[in-house]
Amino acid sequence: MDQELETELVEPIQIKTVTQDEVLQAALKLFAKKGYFNTSLTDIKDALGVTTNTGISQFFKTKQAIAQALHENILDSLSISIDDIRRRNRKAAEQLREVVDLLFKLTDDAPEIVQFLLFVKSEEFLAEPKPLLDSPAFNKIKRIFQNGVKDGEMKAIDPMLAYTYFFGIINQTLAMVLSGDLPKSAETYQAQAWLVAWGCIVKK
């Protein structure tokens, strides 16, 4: 037998391995593009370029477990970022400005994360779903509005109404960028969105 051919036959087949982070990233892109229900473990496997689900199952037994991990990771990271923002800034306007900066930057640099937050419904994969507004990250954002009203930076309205008016404009702008209805980068519209959103709630 030819020496080179014999070597090829006896060498073990190289099986592609994946990391947990690669599984999460592949799933995130698919969930954002197709939705949770329309994404299967096979879709995730194919996106990773592996031939079996073994690489996935060593980290996650089900698609639901992947979505739960993504949900927790994204909200935990957002919560940490908001803590940093609140430590750096005293006024509500300064804090909200940095939160908006973060969301618009994420929309340009990691659109799947914002797509997941805005459009993937947690009740589809969480056993005991809670409203996004009740998560630690968004509770911290709500406290910015509470303090803004209390300190006289914002109009004397219910803080949740202030939150709704403000993020109604911000989130809709981001959603239109993600859908392509606003054709340029999120950064292009950031200054205008901020002026309109903050103008709805600032005490003049």
How much beta, percentage-wise? under 5%
Tell me the series of helices and strands, N- to C-terminal. Answer: HHHHHHHHHH
Q: Give the number of helices.
A: 10
DSSP E strands, number: 0
CATH H-tier superfamily: Tetracycline Repressor, domain 2
User: Which CATH-level-2 architecture?
Assistant: Orthogonal Bundle
What is the residue-averaged pLDDT?
A: 90
Shape: elongated
**What characterizes the major β-sheet?**
none
Q: What structural class do you assign from the helix and strand content?
A: mainly alpha
Distance between the termini: 88 Å
Structure in a nutshell:
Helix content is 69%, strand content 0%. With 204 residues, the chain is mostly helical. The chain has a single domain, classed as Tetracycline Repressor, domain 2 (Orthogonal Bundle).
